[in-house]
Design a protein that fits this description.
The structure holds two protein chains of two kinds.
Chain A (H helix, E strand, L loop, with lengths): L3 E5 L8 E5 L6 H12 L3 E8 L7 E3 L2 E3 L2 E6 L2 E6 L5 H17 L4 E9 L11 E5 L2 H9 L3 E2 L8 H11 L4 E8 L6 H15 L6 H5 L1 H7 L1 H13 L14
Parallel strand pairs in A: 2-7, 2-8, 8-11, 9-10
Antiparallel strand pairs in A: 1-3, 3-6, 4-5, 6-7, 9-11
Helix pairs in contact in A: 1-5, 2-4
Chain B lengths: L3 H36 L6 E2 L3 E5 L3 E7 L9 E5 L3 E13 H4 L7 E10 L10 E5 L2 E7 L11
Parallel strand pairs in B: 1-6
Antiparallel strand pairs in B: 2-3, 3-8, 4-5, 5-6, 7-8
């Protein structure tokens, strides 16, 4: 039996762009993906389940839902998680998402995240960097003036997802904004979405995200705490380590 | 005189009553723990903010995330040699129904955070800044070793 079950309640469009985000550094991906779903009025299309997920459901407008869900609109598919997942689940999830993306002939898998910077407090508008799994991805990012991350480690779910897509030689792009490590960072989420909207020509009104920044910070306080607990297991501290050799 | 059956049913219900009492107490305990952990202290109407303590060789840098705090005058910091107590007033009330819909409605308008430091600091040399809703405390350690020369 598959470790991760994907239940499609609507037809998932083929050849779409798949955005997959989980709570991580500064909750950048979690904030950006849920904002995208809300602002583009995306349609609920199914959910993911696994014995490896915590025993949690979430209520939205009286309706019990899985915290890991799928949303669709036009040529966009979003898979997001509202809860921090244990490391073991992440390994299986990355593999399952990569396989599923292939089944659905997804054009590219995109993930949003944060790069923790110690001086985030002095940064008015966080810069966005990219990582591309394939040479075409990196060319695409360069053409769109997204700076590529050159050297360093990457740890956590996004690392796993990139690795799984690399194995298949399929497209995967991580867009990462300078962010707080341990505080929810809606400003970084806005930067990431701005870059995304530019390179994929998708209109997103980012004003409310910036204006309601404090509301996000206070609401997401507990999720941030739980996410920080998972960093230790995901060896997040590696991201501050210079790599050994140059290739 | 009671019949054997009546005594047995009395005992049976007594056990049930005792069990129920214990379960109730336990549930109350869990609820209290849960509420305290999740929603700060009901009695002082305070939320515990997110905080980060970074230890450098000669000092601690403590940052505390204080959304909805607008003015540095609404922040109160007390330092002892090993404890930081920060209280801050928000400019608006936050209701738990904004945060969690399934828990009884309570309102908060202040933060309170107590941090115990592993090494003594010198409160007189400490300084604080408040920027973009984040409080930064610079807390020099009391004794930062004794310097010796390499012969």
């Amino acid at each position: 039996m598959e470790k991760i079950l994907i239940v499609e309640e609507e037809k998932i469009p083929e050849n779409s762009i798949l955005i997959n985000c989980l709570p991580d550094v500064g909750l950048v991906g979690a904030i950006a993906s849920s904002y995208l779903v809300e602002k583009l009025d995306m349609k609920y299309a199914g959910y993911l389940d696994s014995a490896l997920f915590p025993p949690i459901i979430v209520l939205h407008k009286e309706r019990p839902l899985s915290p890991v869900r799928i949303y669709i609109k036009d040529n966009l598919t979003v898979v997001l998680s509202e809860i921090a997942l244990p490391l073991e689940a992440l390994r299986h999830l990355a593999k399952r998402i990569a396989d599923w993306a292939e089944e659905k002939a997804v054009k590219t898998v995109i993930t949003f995240g944060g790069i923790p910077v110690p001086n985030r407090i002095d940064i008015e508008k966080p810069k966005v960097y990219g990582i591309g799994a394939t040479e075409e991805d990196r060319d695409f990012l360069r053409k769109n003036n997204v700076k590529l991350l050159k050297e360093g480690f990457m740890a956590g779910y996004y690392a796993l997802l990139l690795k799984e897509r690399m194995k298949k030689k399929t497209s995967c792009i991580a867009l990462l904004a300078e962010s707080h490590l341990q505080y929810p960072d809606p400003g970084a989420a806005a930067s990431v979405l701005e870059t995304f909207s530019k390179i994929f020509n998708i209109d997103i009104d980012l004003k409310p995200l910036v204006e309601q920044e404090e509301e996000y910070r206070i609401k997401l306080k507990e999720l941030m705490k739980r996410t920080i607990e998972t960093f230790k297991h995901a060896q997040k501290s590696y991201e501050y380590t210079p790599p050994l050799t140059y290739v | 005189m009671y019949s054997r059956g009546e005594i047995m049913s009395y005992e049976f219900f007594e056990i049930i009553r005792r069990l129920k009492r214990e379960v109730d107490e336990f549930v109350e305990y869990i609820e209290r723990q849960f509420a305290e952990e999740l929603m700060g202290d009901h009695w002082t109407e305070c939320i515990e903010p997110l905080a980060e303590v970074r230890e450098l060789p000669d000092r601690y840098i403590v940052t505390i995330d204080l959304p909805y705090v607008r003015d540095k005058n609404n922040i109160n910091i007390k330092l002892t040699e090993d404890t930081v107590i920060v209280e801050a007033q928000m400019y608006r009330k936050v209701s738990t129904s904004d945060l969690l819909s399934n828990i009884k409605k309570t309102e908060f308008s202040a933060y309170r955070k107590v941090i115990r430091l592993p090494h003594e600091i010198d409160p007189k040399k400490a300084s604080a800044t408040f920027k973009r809703g984040i409080l930064i405390l610079d807390l020099p350690k009391k004794s930062y070793g004794h310097e010796i020369r390499v012969e």
